[in-house]
Amino acid sequence: MNLSQIKRINRWRDGFNPLRGLTMMQAVSLLEAGERGEYASLQWLYRAVERRNATLRAVKSRRVSALTRLDWNVKTITSSGTAQATVLRSAYEQLDNLREAIGFLALAEFRGYAHLEKHRNDNGNVVHFEPVPQWLLFRQGLNGAWQYNPDARNGAATDDDPFIEPDDFLIREVDDPINEIAVIAHLRQSLSQKDWDSFVETYGIPPLFIELPPNIPADKEALYQAQAEAVIGDSRGTMPNGAKVQTIDCGARGTNPFNEHIRYQDECIVLAGTGGILTMLTESGSGTLAGNAHEDTFDQIARADALAISEVFQKQFDAAILAEHFPGAPVLAYFELAAKE
């Protein structure tokens, strides 16, 4: 079964929102299922959080953009590796989406893994790397062989589910993905935001009272009260001479723990997403120096990611090409993703 067929079968999940009614207990249960190789619902949740959490989305965007800005090259270990370098460079130049493939492999830092399916032309040469949606994969246990999950079903893989052929893929795995922390932080933020909205609704506008003029005739009290309630309802209108507006300052309005709590969850995401180098993406009044420091941070992270991704290409793409064209020869050329020289 090819990937396009699997995507068509999986369309039922397109209308499912994993954030609707999500509780902390359910989130922890999905994370535990991921430890057993059951990824469908967990990865669909990751996708939703990446789209809805502003801080996670910013960290993800800045990490990937810093990485895809890097240049790629084929280098040689010794001068005798020129022939191997020529073959490798030709293979990479045939790829129609190398930048996209690099960016997708970078997302393994967030999701725990990334798979690219090799598409070949009529000559058998790889010309395209197709990203595999991460919820269409699972395995039997934490370290089992990768298998297709064409229905994106919940539960464990079985021997009846199709195994993928590793030689047909580029696979990157990360043991401690950022989204494990981001999901918990996002859920805590959502709960805190809900309480904050209730707080604002209750204390955002101070209570208003109208003190009616003295000596109102008894038969006019209902009319005066109706007019006073209309004025309070939209905070505008006229009242008879002698009426006064009274406000009550509620001391509870001064206590607002929600902003700090939400900010702390943002800090947790940024710490996880930058390896502890940054605590916040922006600071008020930080100016150009802080902005440059943040840019340097993501460039530093990109260099580390580039080493890991270059190794994936070297082991899972370069090795097969060199073995085919130079059987039995030592490896003298390699792909490298790095800053422009």
Topology:
Blueprint: H1 3-9, H2 24-35, H3 40-52, H4 54-68, E1 71-76, H5 82-93, H6 98-106, H7 108-111, E2 113-120, E3 126-131, E4 137-139, E5 146-148, E6 169-173, H8 179-203, E7 208-211, H9 221-234, E8 244-247, H10 258-273, H11 287-325, E9 333-338
Antiparallel strand pairs: 1-9, 2-3, 2-6, 4-5, 7-8
Helix pairs in contact: 2-8, 3-4, 3-8, 4-6, 4-10, 4-11, 5-11, 8-10
Task: Summarize the structure in words.
The protein is an alpha+beta fold. The protein folds into two domains: 3-186 and 273-338, no CATH class; 202-268, no CATH class. The protein has eleven helices and nine strands. It has helices at 3-9, 24-35, 40-52, 54-68, 82-93, 98-106, 108-111, 179-203, 221-234, 258-273, 287-325, and strands spanning 71-76, 113-120, 126-131, 137-139, 146-148, 169-173, 208-211, 244-247, 333-338. The strands form four sheets. The protein has a three-stranded antiparallel β-sheet. A two-stranded antiparallel sheet has the order 1-9. It has a two-stranded antiparallel sheet with strand order 4-5. β4 and β5 (146-148) form a beta hairpin. α2 (24-35) packs antiparallel against α8 and α3 (40-52) crosses α4. The chain is elongated. It starts with a helix and ends with a strand. 26% of the residues are buried. The mean pLDDT is 85.
Features:
two-stranded antiparallel ribbon; 341 residues; alpha+beta; elongated; single chain; 49% helix; three-stranded antiparallel sheet
| Helix content, binned percent | 40-55%
Order of helices and strands: HHHHEHHHEEEEEHEHEHHE
Main beta sheet: strand number and arrangement?
A: 3 strands, antiparallel
Overall, the morphology is elongated
Q: Kindly provide the radius of gyration, computed on alpha-carbon positions and rounded to a whole number of angstroms.
A: 29 Å
